[in-house]
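General statements about sequence and structure are easier to judge against a single worked case. In the encoding step, the backbone of a single protein was reduced to a row of integers, each denoting a local shape. The record that follows shows the chain in one-letter code together with its fold in token form.
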Amino acid sequence: MRAAFIIGAGFGYVLGAKAGRERYEQIRKAGREIATHPAVRAAAANVREQAGVMGGKAAHKAGEVGGKAAQKAGEVAHEARAKTGEMAGAAREKVNGRRGKAADEQLMTM
């Protein structure tokens, strides 16, 4: 019983594989015929051309946006440097004022 099952399964596999290969070859041949059809080739060329145009536009827009972002970053950095300089100057004046006040107090206690 078991041997008959194994033989039957093997036979079915061989027949199925052969039928599957034939169907695969049919599908492959039909795909090749479709791909070589003039209308399909023309449509594919049109799609490639449009993709190139759209890609160029996208690259141009990305360049514009990137340039604007770089300009804005430069402006922000410049403002930050100016503000930092102002804050450092104010801190320096405050420290110098405290030193002067401490020195004055020290002189007064002598």
Notes: The CA atoms of residues 50 and 56 lie 10 Å apart. The chain has one domain: 2-83. The first helix runs from residue 2 to 36.
